[in-house]
Structure formats: C-alpha cells, structure tokens
Amino acid sequence: MSYEKEYVRGLRDVAACETRISFVDPLGALYYVGYDIDRLLGRVCYEEVVHLLLHKKLPNESELNALKSALTSEMELPEQIIDSIRNAPKTSHP
What we know:
Elements: E1 22-24, E2 30-32, E3 35-36, H1 37-40, H2 46-55, H3 61-73, H4 79-87
C-alpha cells in the first residue's frame, strides 16, 4: 500500500493545535481573545498583551504594575550565563 503525502510550503492552512486564545478570520485578521491585533498595535505594551493572554482581559493600572514588577523580578541572569558570555571569544558568531 502506498500513498503520497501532500507537501505544504510554509504554514498556511496548517493547524498545529486548537486554541481559544487566538483566531485568524477568513480575511486574515488575527485576534487575541477577541481583540483585533491591528487595533492593539501601538496602543498597548508588551506586558498588557501578556496579561491579556494569561487572563483573557486587558489589565487595569494596578494589574499592569503588578505584572511588570513580577516580570522584572525574574529578569536576572544567572552568574554562570554572564561569565559564559564574558569569556566567549570576541570573534564568536552572535
């Protein structure tokens, strides 16, 4: 028994999984939790989008400040990583 696999270039029309978080309408517009991404661009910051994806709503000022603080507290690189970067040859590829 033989069969031929269809080759699809790129990811157009390829579903990787089901999700309730994002949606692409038939015209190609992308939505996050019901918000049109084009309407969010330039109006909300990265952390607001993180909150939207986690909590299914945009944050109020207090929620945004709490999220920014939580993210900032986790931004420290381990000393081993810093040492590794410092000790890498200057001619290393980025």
